[in-house]
Amino acid sequence: MEEKLSGRSNRINMLFPGERNRPDLARLEWVNDAPSLNKGFIAGLEDWRTSVADPRLVVIDVLQRVKPAGKAGQTSYESDYDAMSELQRWTVDHRVTVLCLHHTRKGGADDPLEALSGSNGLSACADTTLLLDRDGSGITLYVRGRDVEEKESALRFLSGTWNLIGEATEVRRTDERERILSELLIADAAMSPREIAMATSMPRNNVDQLLFKMGKAGEVQKTGRGCYVHPDRTDLIEHPR
């Protein structure tokens, strides 16, 4: 509902360049406008469901466009939960997936779901919540739900599509290892954990843990005074400071 027809066409052409690679989109329907969730939206969904063969998926982009205002006396949690509850019941009763796109608030949060704009009522009502995030370590997709395993995966956006790289913690660990090795490779002398942390802009605790694991795996060489060198820098291993 936030994108014009020309924008949709451009996006489809980017995702599926060339007619040969394009899937059959004959059953894909677009709606430019819709009433609020409490003012006819569910009835409209039901009309659509009973008018098509084998309905599977509804995408609401974005939720805020159809989310009703809260009632007087309600907390934000109660308002958000009420806004989603009838929609959640409809999707469960009719086994049609409804994907609601929603924004996140600026600033970090200890719990990933705290990053959702609004209250926890939205994620509490939803069967599954997926949070797409980007930080200095890359792009991640966090998943939590009633019937799914909690997981955070690292993603890469390439040629118009999202590609799963692997588990986020493992990918970050690999990236951090590479950053440490890169600094050690160009160093003029063996480096202490503190110096490595400063050079890589990594938390000291992360550096200490990784150096211990990398040392056991033979990825780094420990010299005197608790310093480390790259295994290829034999000049520094032979002449530690």
Beta-strand residue percentage: 15-25%
Q: What's the total count of β strands? A: 8
What low-confidence regions span 5 or more consecutive residues with pLDDT below 50?
none
What is the terminal-to-terminal distance?
Answer: 64 Å
Radius of gyration: 25 Å
Order of helices and strands: HHEHEHEEEEHHHEEH
From the spread of the alpha carbons, the general shape counts as: elongated
Proportion in helices: 25-40%
Number of domains: 2
| Largest sheet, spatial ordering of strands | 3-4-5-6
Structural class of the secondary structure composition? alpha+beta
Number of alpha- plus pi-helical segments? 8
Q: Report the mean per-residue pLDDT as an integer.
A: 88
Largest sheet: 4 strands, antiparallel
Show the helix and strand layout.
Layout: H1 5-15, H2 37-51, E1 57-61, H3 76-94, E2 97-101, H4 121-125, E3 128-135, E4 138-145, E5 151-158, E6 161-167, H5 168-186, H6 193-200, H7 204-216, E7 221-222, E8 228-229, H8 234-238
Parallel strand pairs: 1-2
Antiparallel strand pairs: 3-4, 4-5, 5-6, 7-8
Helix pairs in contact: 5-6, 6-7
Key words describing this protein structure:
4-stranded antiparallel β-sheet, Arc Repressor Mutant, subunit A, AAA family ATPase, 2 domains, 241 residues, alpha+beta, two-stranded parallel ribbon, 39% helix, 8 helices, 19% strand, single chain, 8 strands
